[in-house]
């Protein structure tokens, strides 16, 4: 089923590349079986619409000037100068001046089909083959793409050229809610973005990308021991993100000679263009792979351990979790992104080789060790800074233990050696002396388990 | 000094508080504190004792605004009187460092940004200026000398990713001084890297942390490369340079050949009065009263995050009032926007914020509680002020070579 779709897509693309465009016929042929079934006898009054992007080849091509397209009220009353968008409205207005008026009848014969081109030469719709079928449509297009953005949203200061776009936006602005992977809801986009960047849920991101690929072939998740990760979708950003990250992934894979190479897993993969197609292919190949079990727990725990001593985890995570992509053809779009990254990768690769040779248990132990040593070198006790301030502390002790010894200035004021204050606060609130991750429980993937309160709306993890 | 009659003093404290006029007791902290500061500068030890004792009775870091002010300023005054400021400050710094983790820092700063535009105002203004100045460039290098732990950058990364089809390459070099824990910066760097990857922005992150003082920063350490467009972002940074070294530091920034320098500072003058303690004290009291007020009105009544910020605030107060010289940690002597302008004009020319950026800032303020607004700088000064109840509190300005 999927390979059939892929074939049709490939045919279409070939056509497009050959002819520079596709005639409506060819598209219908290619997608015919996949389109929703249309009525063969539509009600007579309904206008026949061409497929999008395919203007009627017999239609009259009209090229209006920018001035005409931007003009809002072309029909002007000669008496009072009031402008109208439509001639009919002007005629009705003229009645009020007791002027002769005439409403035009709808033309009796079949209306000639008209299509409109954009006057802007650099625009794709300047080409008659990509003309738009609607006068209002071309007006809005020209205004949006090539016009000045005069309408500004009050709440978020987004700008629009077309008034109706601005109105539509204003209705929904501020009502949209953003949900982070961690479950927190936000009404503000900027706080959502900032939160997301620092959120621990982002650590699961690479896992999610893998899962996203396999959404098409849903059984994939079972083969990965990561069932606790839910592939949730961030509103409105999923597509763009997946596309961008896919580009990065594909590109990365081709640049590195991955030591976890399993050349037989992936045959030649041709990136065909749309993300979904590529994801499908990827899913297909993974499915058919017999070497999948090689992605075992130890490798994954290495991948997702956060305490790698590498200075940049970028290399470690991406190259390891895409085990054998050395044969993937590089996506053209991702090329410029990788300018400075290969160097990073090569150094990371050697490190990965060394570790992946050891057993799963050893890996987990190592990950735990690394976690502890990379935290703050805590001096073990709280005494050392205190020790330095013994003098001051002694004097304060008097009052602190609630005996009044008013012999010194210092005794009048309860201790302000902040170390003691901190003790008081800690005792009062029962919080751990230090918050570092060294002692926290870690799940088997090496990701810290958070002992803090549950997420709530506007609760901060 | 002896204090042989506690009861006597107790009586005078309650006398003070039994004043008939309710308004007089409302801002009791300011009055008592000022009296004490005066006593200290006059070296009237008897008076100092009495006032310190009284303040101690009434102060509490967990009380209302007045009690908090009394508590934090009392600590500073006490250290000033006993000349134990530096020792006390060092202790409080090391305590802070040990109790701060990535999680706690993140929690505090993100919550602060959620309830108050104090920092986000500067971020939005700077990001807007940076995006406009570096428009069209393919390689960006931002040198970030801030005290906001990179919370400014996610929105900039998102803007870079969405405004054009091709995102430019961004290199971020963070200059961290002793106050910002090294471990925290590592974690932050990892997160930034991951987020940039998510956004599809090619990204490099680097931290310069071996400086004991900010004015030791030199061009060589930044590793500037050919063909990259440089932006320098200073949020609460210039005030961390010792007063005497500020001009040289600004000149050093000029040698980095940046396209834009964004400066955000808190609007207060702690430098003009170094000789007269009482005058300096007044200004300090004025500024921090406003700050604590904004914290009180922005956060919910019981908030650990606010407490953390207040403690940080008390350390600053201690540093300004009770520590002479630059031996311990970063300087905290703020200057007003107009003063910074006079310094910066030597090496740069001011670049006013575009209308689009101002609109963005207005939209930003709308998302917070009422009380905040914008005010353009006037006269010799340039830039924009964030105001709280018509009082300017934060100043932001962009500069070009």
Describe the fold and architecture.
The complex is a heterodimer of chains A (461) and B (401). Chain A is mainly α. Chain A is built from 19 helices and 8 strands. The model of chain A is unreliable at 30-43, 219-357, 372-407, 415-440 and 442-461 (pLDDT under 50). With 401 residues, chain B is α/β, with parallel strands linked by helices. Chain B folds into 2 domains: 6-101 and 285-324, no CATH class; 119-269 and 334-400, Rossmann fold. Chain B contains 16 helices and 9 strands. In chain B, strands 1, 2, 3, 4, 5, 6, 7, 8 and 9 form a 9-stranded mixed beta sheet that branches. In chain B, α3 (28-42) packs antiparallel against α13 (277-298) and α8 (120-133) packs antiparallel against α16 (355-366). Chain B is globular, with a radius of gyration of 22 Å. Chain B starts with 5 loop residues before the first helix and ends with a strand. In chain B, 52% of the residues are buried. The chains are: A mainly alpha (461), B alpha/beta (401). The interface between A and B is large, with 70 and 72 residues.
Poorly predicted spans of chain A: 30-43, 219-357, 372-407, 415-440, 442-461
Largest sheet of chain B: 9 strands, mixed
Order of strands across the biggest sheet of chain A?
A: 1-4
Which residue ranges of chain B are poorly predicted, with pLDDT under 50 across at least 5 consecutive positions? 1-15
Largest interface: A-B, 70 and 72 residues
Classify the oligomer: heterodimer
- What percent of the residues of chain B sit in helical stretches (DSSP H or I)? 40-55%
Q: What's the average pLDDT of chain B?
A: 88
Topology:
The complex is a heterodimer of chains A (461) and B (401).
Chain A: H1 2-19, H2 24-31, E1 60-63, H3 66-70, E2 75-76, E3 83-84, H4 87-96, E4 114-117, H5 135-146, E5 151-152, E6 159-160, H6 163-172, E7 178-179, E8 185-186, H7 189-198, H8 205-213, H9 220-223, H10 238-255, H11 275-288, H12 297-304, H13 313-321, H14 342-356, H15 360-373, H16 383-388, H17 390-400, H18 409-412, H19 418-429
Parallel strand pairs in A: 1-4
Antiparallel strand pairs in A: 2-3, 5-6, 7-8
Helix pairs in contact in A: 1-2, 12-13, 12-15, 13-14
Chain B: H1 6-17, H2 22-26, H3 28-42, H4 45-58, H5 65-82, H6 85-99, H7 102-115, H8 120-133, E1 139-146, H9 153-163, E2 169-175, H10 182-199, E3 203-208, H11 219-222, E4 229-235, H12 246-255, E5 260-266, H13 277-298, H14 304-322, H15 337-344, E6 349-351, H16 355-366, E7 372-376, E8 384-388, E9 391-400
Parallel strand pairs in B: 1-2, 1-4, 2-3, 4-5
Antiparallel strand pairs in B: 5-9, 6-9, 7-8, 8-9
Helix pairs in contact in B: 3-4, 3-5, 3-13, 4-5, 5-13, 5-14, 6-14, 7-14, 8-9, 8-16, 9-10, 13-14
